[in-house]
Amino acid sequence: MDTPKAEHYYILFKNHTDGTAMYHALRAAGLSAQIAPTPRQLSVCCGVSLIIQPEEIPAIKKLAEEQELEYVKIEGVNNPFRRG
After folding, report:
1. In 3D, which of 39, 59, 61, 69 has the Cα closest to residue 51?
2. Which domains, from first to last, does the chain contain?
3. CA of 82: how far to CAs of 18, 41, 79, in Å?
4. By CB count within 10 A, which of 4, 11, 30, 59 is most buried?
5. How far apart are the first and last CA of the chain?
6. 66-83 per-position pLDDT tens digit
């Protein structure tokens, strides 16, 4: 049986400054990122996270390394939410 995929992927940060820096770097590189509150089940960080696309994770990790961007971890969560 296949393991279900996470519904949303988040980048978690130690502080708001690191989250903002990553957000601007991702957007400048043409990658998807949406600022969001950190889900309760992941709240081991500052409370601000970025929702990202799972297929972009390798590119995000490479960009973070190249630009020395700090983050705690990237985590997937099954937390459905409605937009709009």
Report:
1. 39
2. 16-73 (3.30.70)
3. 27, 18, 10
4. 11
5. 34
6. 999 999 999 998 866 544
